[in-house]
User: What shape does this take?
Amino acid sequence: MTLDAALADARLATLEFDDAREWLERAREKRPVEPFAAEVWVTDPAFGHVLLVKHRRRGWVPPGGKVEPGETPRAAAARELMEETGLRGELLPVPAAVSVRSYRADRSPTLGLSYTAVIGRDVPLGGESGQPPAWIDLDDTWESAFPEDRDRIRAHVHRLAAGHGVGAH
Assistant: This one.
């Protein structure tokens, strides 16, 4: 179930990085492919901010984490969003991106699926102790172990804004 869901969402993803679809096809032949990672690129309705979590080692990153056995990446993304920010949000139907990265130096690269949610900034934030969530202006530069995510997230949010007739700043 997890692999099938990951394959389906990887094929649907708006953006692809690191030849992720090809990597997944090659990895699928080797089995097992898991673990997968899932995260949520949360923006506000004005498309001017992104919700990030201050991870103790990775810096500012989107809420996300490991997909548990038997869980779909979409369900994992929604669960991680709730655990790390205290927010429940409807994930947009089409995944934002698919990528391949290593989250720790001692681990093999894994497939990551990024989903999108649009949530008002007036909703109170909660989350895990020691990993505070915060709304960051999309034009700001945030420190992250994955600096390429800044431009990826910005480009995706600008595309969403254009599709809604809103000019993201």
Observations:
- The mean pLDDT is 90.
- Residues 38 and 100 are 11 Å apart (CA to CA).
- The two ends are 40 Å apart (CA to CA).
- Helices lie at 2-12, 20-30, 73-85, 148-163.
